[in-house]
Amino acid sequence: MSSTEMQVQVEPQRPWIDRTSSLKDTVALVGVSAILAAVANLVTGLAGLMGFYLAFVIFFVITSVIDGYRHDKVKAVDKMATALVTLGFATAFIPWASILLTVVRRGWPAIYGGYFTHDMSVTAADDDLAMGGLSHAIVGTGLILLVACIISIPLGILTAAYITEIRGRLAGFVRIMVQSMSGVPSVVAGLFIFATIVSRWKFSGLAGAFALAILMLPTIARTAEEVLKLVPEEVRSASYALGASQTATTFRIILPAARSGLITASVLGVARVAGETAPLILTAYYSAIFSTKMTGQPIASLPMYVYQNFTVGTDTALTRAWGGAFVLLTLILILFVIARIIGGRGKK
Amino acid sequence: MDMEKMDTSAKRAEDMNVETRASTQASTLDERMVKMSGLQTKSVHAWFGDHHVLQDVSLDFPANTVTGLIGPSGCGKSTFLRMLNRMHEFIPGAAMAGEVFLDGDEIYAPKTDVAAIRLKIGMVFQKANPFPSMSIQENVLAGLKLANLKVDDKNSLLEECLTRAGLWKEVKDRLKRAGSSLSGGQQQRLCIARALAVKPKVLLMDEPCSALDPGSTLKIEETIVELSKTMTVVIVTHNMQQAARVSDYCAFFLAADHPGRVIEADKTDVIFTSPKDQRTADYVQGRFG
Questions:
Q1: Which ipTM score applies to this complex?
Q2: Nearest to B147 among A231, A244, A256 (CB)
Q3: Does domain B2-284 have CATH number 3.40.190.10?
């Protein structure tokens, strides 16, 4: 017999304790906790859905610890920490899921084919849901956000570049100003534009865009600053060592290197203001008629469409308002996805 | 503000000269004509804030030679190297005194075009630093774009630079791939190719192999020997064998209770076989540092 045939087949062995609990254990824990919570729900003061959840949280932690003690104390502490972290995540997730579900559930009846092609010029808020739509609000929001982006994205990125790349004499001052600007309440930004622009001319989409740009700028500048700081110092050295000027280094090396992060910064800026209502009440106001004119007259927007319908307050109007909220959330989601795709491209 | 800084450094330099002029200057390679090819430093000092890190360094780097700068960590080798292409001045609070000549022209003279100096004196860093958003091809040609230089045949330049850096065979089929997709050693050779693309006369290398495996190190050393036929190379290294293998001249830096300075500078075989200073002998034989 040759030595290879004599060799014993070696099977991989894992004598150590698996650190993640098995699915079976988890299901058992959740089941036992749920039953105990249900009993507590019936016989104690922990009544209602919230009471049940609270009881479940308590029992889940207790049963996890008991389960861990079957091994040893270390495992028990480990199980308790795992239970707390998981419950923390689940608890934070509840409002998120609740908002999303409520918006979809209550907004869905308002959606029909013509919802995206009609405006509200010949339809009243409490007319039948098969009439009217929010095309005017989508276009208005799109135009206002577009102009706000055109103003604030270059300004925000240049501000960040001034702080991290140019490192000018005023960099520290500018950083503090940007930070304090991010604390400006949105209604104050609206009032500022109302006082400077709207009071002299008229409500307009352009004024709305200015107000939103004021709110976007600090978000973009601060995020972009963090992103630019992540570009390694060696990359700057390499560029300077090739005889590049500061301008060439900033615009041809550093900003392209941080492109994905800068897109994220811009999207965060848009997401910050897309649902803002207060500044728009004071600047762009609202119009029921489809229009792409950004000056001289009010223009609709999705948050204002929602607000207008809520103030009417009848059942159909409220459904329209939820429908508007649904469309707004969906548009922001689409924007995020597009930005992710653009930002992710070029990374090989 | 800059003017003030310059004034104080100049004053400091004068003070230093009063103290050190009498002391023996260890450098042996001066005593040349000012107008000569290659790189030359005269009484170079460096400071970081009030900290005097480098004192009175006068060295010659004759054209088409390789000079190794050796010495323990913190003795000012890298600082000295960064002064040779004016990268030292990027560090806040940094100051210098003395003169550096490239082919007889003072690179710290007023009105000197710093960008032009850095085009003539290229640099390779300790950590490979390809531009992250660029492909291999774009990385090599980045210098041209950054300095707005025009070149007739980009493809032949690309091939020439990658070949000289010893990388062409490995990457010729994937020039459009990201520079960061290469291995560490390949990235460092890519950085060498990038430095070569702007046709520098001098190449400064700051511990280019310290993070690389022996195989990649060997390839880069072959590259250095090849490059030295047409250009001047100054290399900082902590690897004594590397200094012995690639360099024609060696300068031994030491900072012990005083600012860093050159203890001894001579032909490499002299430094390694019959150094005049005991400290040099101790260092190259690994007895300290």
A1: 0.76
A2: A244
A3: no
